[in-house]
Amino acid sequence: MGFCSYNISSTYTWNTGETTSEILVSNSGKYWVEVTNQYGCLNSDTVIVNFKFDDSKYIIPNVVTPNGDEVNDTIDFGKYEPSIINLEVKNRWGVKVFGCNELPCIWNPKENDGTYYYIAQYKTICDDIIIIKNLKGFITLIK
Predict the structure, then answer these.
(1) Which residues face 120 on adjacent strands?
(2) Integer CA distances (angstroms), 129 to 16, 51, 52, in order
(3) In angstroms, rounded to a whole number, what is the distance separating the alpha carbons of residues 42 and 30?
(4) Angle at CA 70, nearest 5°, toward 135 and 55?
(5) At residue 56, what are phi and psi to the nearest 5 degrees?
(6) Residue 98 CB: number of other CB atoms within 10 A?
């Protein structure tokens, strides 16, 4: 087994067709490269890239103020553009006050002030990968 390190005179052939020493990928998948140095030493490597689910982008507001000022009057649960959504908002007694399982999924509350909780499942299909995120939390409604 030999090791060929980066050398300015080496040539690179990626399965993407690129010929640089490094590539930037934006899709999950299998990537390989063949490297030939100035002496004809040939080496190759393969890497499988799976993009991790970014929890930080799924931030649900915890306060809604439906007072007609057009600021925080509604909550758009579908703004993250999931492939599939399943959502329920319940009052403190567990009675469902809002739900949706298709986009758009916007809660425009008509209920009384108080604390409500939600249970949401987001499914995103990226290439052949299905990413599922289950979220739950509380929302305070203030008119």
Answers:
(1) 87, 135
(2) 20, 10, 11
(3) 20
(4) 20
(5) -65, -20
(6) 20
pTM to 2 decimals?
0.60
Print pLDDT tens along the chain (143 aa).
344 455 678 899 999 999 988 888 877 788 999 999 888 889 999 988 876 656 566 778 899 999 989 889 999 988 877 878 899 999 999 999 999 998 899 999 999 999 999 999 988 776 667 778 888 999 999 98
31/46 Cα distance (integer angstroms):
6
What's the topology of domain 55-141? Immunoglobulin-like (2.60.40)
Q: What are the residues whose beta carbons fall under 8 Å from the beta carbon of 17, sequence distance 6 or more?
A: none
Residue boundaries of the structural domains of the chain: 11-49, 55-141
